[in-house]
TrEMBL record:
Pfam families: AAA_lid_14, HTH_8, PAS_8, PrpR_N, Sigma54_activat. This is Sigma 54-interacting transcriptional regulator. Coiled coil: none annotated. The keyword Transcription applies. Keywords: Activator, ATP-binding, Nucleotide-binding, Transcription, Transcription regulation, Two-component regulatory system. It comes from Rhodoplanes azumiensis. Residues 295-525 form the Sigma-54 factor interaction domain.
């Protein structure tokens, strides 16, 4: 500090974080300013000895000029130590009037050496009195002591900056928190209210800050939220018709209650955030695109499957869909999800046959941080977690290993998952839909699939009919696929004729709807104005038959006789299945007239009825239906949707 430092410090105290000064000026500033710290440049004993050594060398009488409360004791000790104690005069002062009085005395000390601390007032004296034969030996702080004072000031500034940053960070967290936050001290006085609390409680912070809760004008909601100030987590409180989730945290220092922090949030806001998070998941592709309206076909077998699936959508039970490759299992799964009350939740699908066991496990259940080499830092949520409050579709479920089967069973039973390498159980609310083109019941009997998992997955069962059992649907399917193929290839392909459709209907389509779609896409690509569509279809079907003339999984022929009034197209298999197919085909031809079917086949209506029940029940329950008549009737009722 230089001349006028005290006045300058007073006028600009709010512009600085710390003041560095020396001697009497520092003492005066510290006594007048309390808003910011004042760092005094210290004088070491070496600084005093240097000044006294210079003064003694001049061999003149000594006078000590200093602030009484500051360095006077040090100066007197050094004077006595130097052996000149009896010779010095003491000119000490404590305020402005004393300074002026001692200044007048000093002006009369011709021939003396004045020893004083180097500051602006003593420097002014030196400039005025040296011409009167008065010598000066000033005590100056060393460069080291000045640096120490500056470093102390810098440390204070940095510490203050860190504290301000921490305070600003906490303020930002509190101000922008979605939760309402109120702090109340040990005198039940409100000390802080964040904007969310103002919004939720419909209050103004200025109206309640620094006021006690028991004041009449204080909102009753604050008193109810504070309660008795005891510790509370996730307490449901109803205020003015709103359900609030409340946390109450007492803050104690040395076992003494200092304040209570109350945080709260509207349940409706929590639900809204959950929906927002769910929609963000949906934006990543976790969404079912298809609905029942997208399923093409009017056959009785298909309509029966759709009607049953619609009823399954009304529940949250697990559904196992069985059907050959290409029958539209995922189309039905997505439709069930979109027709259920989980339609706003995520839809997650995984093909269990596409991944090896270790990778499938981590994909389904996720993994913890450091679970294995190459694991993502922080771990990863599995598909079951992503599907929370939604649906997960496990395609090709028959391909999973026994180890994965065990973990799936636990998820279905306990509704909780444990990440790979993790130690924390996560609750999940997920509906499981699964599909297979295998005979899971046979796999259970052979010990290749857990029976308990089989029954958990198949609380509800849905069998999708192959295309050869609903040939009347080939017309609408072909029309759609031809239009799609025309748009994709840019070629104009006319609707197929009745003869074209009959050719397609004669083929058994082991790949079902998917195979038909790919075949018609090939037809659209190869279509040429110089070749009739019917001829091209015949040519391609011939090639198709030669290439795929026998299904690798079954010896049955894929190309059968044309259906007409006297012939039926059947898939070769067990006799009872062929009998059932005959009844189903005849029911389709007669529009469900069981009397007419019984007459034309020469069997009783009871036999027709039993074959219909076998079709509804599925192959694994056929034996039960063929038991004695009373039991068969009971089983038929039990397995109806």
């Amino acid at each position: 500090m230089t001349k006028g430092g005290l006045q300058y410090a007073i006028e600009h105290q709010h512009d600085y974080d710390v003041i560095v000064s020396q001697g009497g000026t520092a003492a005066h500033i510290e006594s007048c300013i309390t808003s910011i710290p004042v760092i005094t440049i210290k004088l070491s004993i070496t600084d005093f000895l240097d000044a006294f050594g210079r003064a003694i060398e001049r061999d003149r009488p000594l006078a000590l000029f200093c602030v009484a409360s500051e360095v006077l004791p040090e100066m007197e000790r050094v004077a006595r130590f130097s052996g000149r104690a009896p010779d010095y005069k003491l000119l000490a002062y404590s305020h402005k009037e004393e300074f002026e009085a001692q200044y007048r005395v000093a002006a009369t000390l011709q021939g003396h050496t004045l020893i004083g601390v180097s500051c602006y007032c003593v420097l002014d004296m030196q400039a005025e009195l040296e011409g009167r034969g008065i010598d000066f030996a000033l005590i100056c702080p060393s460069q080291r002591n000045i640096q120490k004072a500056v470093l102390s000031a810098k440390s204070i500034v940095e510490s203050k900056g860190r504290e301000e940053l921490k305070a600003q960070r906490m303020k930002s967290i509190v101000d922008y928190s979605a939760q309402g936050i109120v702090s109340i001290d040990d005198q039940r006085r409100v000390t802080s209210v964040n904007p969310a609390a103002e919004r939720i409680l419909d209050i103004r912070a200025g109206a309640v800050l620094s006021r006690r809760l028991d004041e009449t004008a204080m909102p009753a909601a604050l008193r109810e939220l504070h309660g008795d100030g005891d510790f509370q987590l996730n307490q449901l409180v109803k205020l003015d018709g709103n359900d609030l989730l409340v946390n109450r945290i007492p803050v104690r220092v040395n076992d003494r209650l200092e304040e209570t922090i109350v945080s709260f949030q509207r349940v409706t806001d929590i639900q809204r955030l959950e929906i927002k998070a769910r929609m963000q998941l949906l934006s990543k592709g976790l969404v079912a695109k298809h609905r029942f309206e997208d399923i093409v076909g009017t056959s009785a077998a298909l309509r029966t499957a759709i009607d049953r699936a619609r009823r399954f959508a009304e529940t949250s039970a697990s559904v196992l869909i069985e059907g050959e490759t290409g029958t539209g299992k995922e189309l039905f799964v997505q439709s069930i999800h979109n027709a259920s009350d989980r339609r706003d939740g995520p839809f997650v699908a995984i093909n269990c046959a596409a991944l090896p066991e270790t990778l499938l496990e981590s994909e389904l259940f996720g993994y913890a941080d450091g679970a294995f080499t190459g694991a993502k830092r922080g771990g990863k949520a599995g598909l079951f977690e992503l599907a929370h409050n939604g649906t997960i579709f496990l395609d090709e479920i028959g391909e999973v290993s026994p180890a994965i089967q065990s973990r799936l069973l636990r998820v279905l039973q306990e509704r909780e998952i444990l990440r790979v390498g993790g130690d924390r159980v996560v609750k999940v609310n997920v509906r499981v839909l699964s599909a297979t083109n295998k005979n899971l019941y046979q796999m259970v009997r052979e010990g290749r699939f857990r029976d308990d998992l089989f029954f958990r997955l198949g609380v509800l069962n849905l069998r999708l009919p192959p295309l050869r059992e609903r040939t009347e649907d080939i017309r609408p399917l072909a029309d759609r696929f031809v239009r799609m193929a025309s748009e994709t290839t840019g070629k104009r392909l006319d609707d197929l004729s009745a003869d074209d459709i009959r050719m397609l209907q004669r083929y058994a389509w082991p790949g079902n709807v998917r195979e038909l779609e790919y075949f018609l896409e090939k037809l659209a690509i190869l279509a040429d104005a110089s070749v009739r569509t019917s001829d091209l279809i015949g040519l391609l079907l011939g090639e198709h038959t030669r290439d795929h003339g026998r299904d690798a999984a079954s010896p049955r022929p894929l190309l059968d006789a044309t259906d007409d009034d006297d012939r039926l197209t059947l898939a070769v298999g067990p006799m009872r299945d062929m009998q059932r197919q005959i009844v189903e085909r005849m029911l389709e031809r007669t529009n469900g007239n069981k009397v007419e079917v019984a007459r034309r086949l020469g069997i009783s209506r009871v036999t027709v009825w039993n074959k219909m029940k076998e079709a509804d029940a599925g192959p694994r329950d056929a034996e039960a239906l063929r038991a004695d008549a009373p039991f068969a009737r009971a089983a038929a009722v039990r397995f109806r949707p």
